[in-house]
Amino acid sequence: MCGIVGYIGKQKASHILLNGLKRMEYRGYDSAGWAMIENEKLNLLKNIGKVAHLDRLTPHDMINATVGIAHTRWATHGFPNHLNAHPHMDNSENIAVVHNGIIENYTALKTKLQKDGYYFNSDTDTEVLAVFIGAIYEKVQDLEKAVRIALSEIDGTFGIAVLSSYEPEKIICARHGSPMVLGIGDNEYIVASDAAAIIQHTNQVVYLNDKEMAIITRDGFVTKTIDNENTEPIIEEINFDLAQIEKGGFDHFMLKEIHEQPETVFNSFRGRLLADVGNVKLGGLNNMMDKLRKTKRIIITACGTSWHAGLVGEYMIEQMAQIPVEVEYASEFRYRNPIIGPDDVVFAISQSGETLDTLAAIKEARQKGATVIGIVNVVGSTIARETEAGVYIHAGPEIGVASTKAFTSQITVLSLIALLLGRMRNLSQPEGQAIAEAIMELPDKIRQVLATEKEIKAIAEKYYENKNFLYLGRGFNYPLALEGALKLKEISYIHAEGYPAAEMKHGPIALIDENMPVVFIATKDTIYDKVFSNIEEVKARKGKIIAIATEGDERIKKVADHVIYVPEVMPMLNPILSAVPLQLLAYHIALKLECDVDQPRNLAKSVTVE
Ligand code: G6P
Questions:
Q1: What CATH code is carried by the domain that includes residue 381?
Q2: Longest dimension (CA), the chain
Q3: Cα 587 to averaged position of ligand 1 atoms, centre (Å)
Q4: pLDDT, tens only, 388-443
């Protein structure tokens, strides 16, 4: 949510900032802006809309500055208009601030500053911080000190970068709850909220910790806590390369990421399956084995698509390991005073590793003594660091705002965890071996599903003008119905509902007529016949049926208007295969509607606010 980038070095800052903003645009795209120092003067430029608008306003080649900060915004406080765009300045217009996060006590601070004669141009909490830093600077005449004092008095979360013409050879950045990474180049430094903005220039980075700040000049940097205690920076290497964050010949990141799934699912189980003994080895859980063996209850917490993966995980773990599992929206869990204690194990699932609600749920669970394990994609992210143990899903950078490959990788990792927990209990070695072998066959089967894209595109072309869609499934396919509907809503703005197929008759059936396309995930499993009856109920009411079915199922052709076949697979692994046609259907519908597939309106890739 929102992207920050800053540069100090020998190259033109505008070029690096613009590139960095483009790489982070998936984090927020309501407005963009930058501040640079040229001839010791602070120049600021911002504009509503995407990063490209900013460049059109003043071509970046015309700016010679070698130090600057920039921001791409996802609105929290105030409309996404020009005034509310970042950077924000203090009243002297000598200090510029870009900020991710939320300052909770900004109203009180604003009132106090107004009483002291300071004024505000925007509705944002960030401008309050900028004016506050400016007010302190007037007294202390030291930028670092002013930032430190201001940060010690604010409540909330922040990732910030500060630039000032008072001390023009310096960028100050700090974090608390919002990520901030410092890239170390050859006599140049790039600070950003996302390593994607840095990788083009260097792979050597320092991840700032909460309540830590960095003071960066052309000659070096120091890190310290915001209480002014020096800290020892740990230099790490970024674990992905530039090619992974580019489109690689595809029209959209989302399409590229859908097509990457044979490899990303493979990477999620690679080196982790012990096929000969039907078991799993997860290095990140080594010190958790005893706990996992003894636990009598599991809670899975997540948001959005990750929550849907969690639902599949619930079914898998209950089936394979017979441990009761509850799946909680992180945003509900954190405020509900949940009944949870030291015997419980919590799995927190997050692609970005930065979702604020999930982070808060983790803190709540830990506070109550539970063991918390992360299932995260982004290496080094806050959730990865806040959990006691974890399993990375290794899906690689996901740039499309609608999550695709992370979903299938999350389910793959959950299947490994379910297998591990099962083998600690009653699951036999032959059963474990069969599951391990089925997991290993997934990449090839996903390739077969991807080969049906043409048929899916034809279906999209037929139904893209419909105003409503229903997605139905049962058992392992029910969470998939939710995910299919979410994908369509997110990127095409068509109203879609996911429902357990049998529940349809308790309400949604009233919506069905000849204008309602109903997507059934009706693959072969123990309740296939029941789902088939649900299909007939829709057929009887003239609904249009798009069925995802198991290869060789000829019967379904008689009732469905369209059938997309997926290879036969163990039912619990079917969500990994059947997710793919649902993603492609949403993609091709959005494309026909000329929607912005990779950056759908109002959404953000990682939601670091409540
Ligand atoms: C946002 C994204 C979704 C994602 C959800 C949870 O809403 O747009 O795609 O599923 O956050 O994000 P996380 O990074 O925690 O998986």
A1: 3.40.50.10490
A2: 80
A3: 17
A4: 899 999 999 999 999 999 999 999 999 999 999 999 999 999 999 999 999 999 99
Distances (CA, A) of 336 to 157, 298, 328, 361: 22, 17, 11, 10
Look up residue 258 and give its two tokens. Answer: 């859908």
Q: Are residues 203 and 140 in the same domain?
A: yes
- The parent domain of residue 348 ranges over 243-440
Question: pLDDT tens across 474-533, in order?
Answer: 999 999 999 999 999 999 999 999 999 889 889 888 889 999 999 999 999 988 889 989
HSE (side-chain half, CA atoms, 13 Å) at 112: 11
Choose one of 385, 418, 440: the last residue of a domain.
440
CATH number at residue 95: 3.60.20.10
First to last CA, the chain: 11
- What total of structural domains would you count in the chain? 3
Residue 421 lies in a domain: yes
Residue 160 shares a structural domain with residue 305: no
Strands 325-329 and 298-302: parallel
Q: For residue 239, is pLDDT > 80?
A: yes
CB atoms within 10 A of CB 536: 13
Quote the Cα angle for 306-307-310, to 5°. 90
d(CA 241, CA 73): 25
Which amino acids are annotated catalytic? 2, 605
Q: Which of 238, 273, 290 is the last residue of a domain?
A: 238
The ligand 1 atom at the shortest distance from the C-alpha of residue 603 is 8
Which residue CA neighbors atom 2 of ligand 1 most closely?
Answer: 605
Give the pocket of ligand 1 (CB within 6 Å). Answer: 303-306, 350-352, 355, 358, 401-403, 603, 605-607
Residue minimizing CA distance to atom 15 of ligand 1: 350
User: Ligand 1 centre from 607 Cα, in Å?
Assistant: 7
Ligand 1 geometric centre to CA of 149 (Å): 34
Secondary structure (H, E, C), 158-196: EEEEEEECCCCCCEEEEEEECCCEEEECCCCEEEECCHH
Q: What is the pTM of this model?
A: 0.89
